[in-house]
Amino acid sequence: MKKALFICGFLMLVMSSFSQKEVEFFLQSNGSFLTADGSDYVVVPFEGKTSSELYSMVKSNAMSFYRDPKEVMSEDENVAIKICALKNLDWGIDILSNYDYYGYYNFLFQFKDGKIRIDAPSISKEVYNRIGKSYDSFYYYVRKLFTRKGAVKQRKLKHKLRIEDSINYPINYLLGFYQKNTDKDNNW
Predict the structure, then answer these.
(1) What is the per-residue pLDDT across 134-157, written as a single tens digit (0 to 9) for each?
(2) Is the sign of the CA dihedral 3, 20, 62, 170 positive or negative?
(3) Could you give the CA distance from residue 139 to residue 72 in angstroms, rounded to a whole number?
């Protein structure tokens, strides 16, 4: 029994090492996003795909992800796609009511044969609560999540993680990491 569990665990480890890793950007105390190694961009390899195929894939995923993709997407065919959209960045419960914070995010995808470069996302200067009142800036909101030394306040960690998830999910969706394989013939 132990041997079978060991073999299953080893196979899962090997399979996960060959799978594509999701893109992760982490919120910094100054309101910017960086990767785990401190870079402001990520290059995701897609072996055997041309820049045209990668461009079409991201554009197709954007068409299914956004309600009105033409409003949020600008493009340079087969070279780059830029997306600017409104997103619920954080939410919670205050003493008196529930609250949501919205802000505009910007993504830039650049395409070359066999790879896509994703620049670190940026958030608009102002964030809005659900009744339209704006904060001074996104930076001011983020500063409340961190100590003066730049560490995340323990009781604010869930807010930081929500903001990161709000940003990383659309990126990974557009890259096709959350899509089912739709290579089958689609006769309709």
Answers:
(1) 565 788 888 889 999 989 999 999
(2) positive
(3) 23
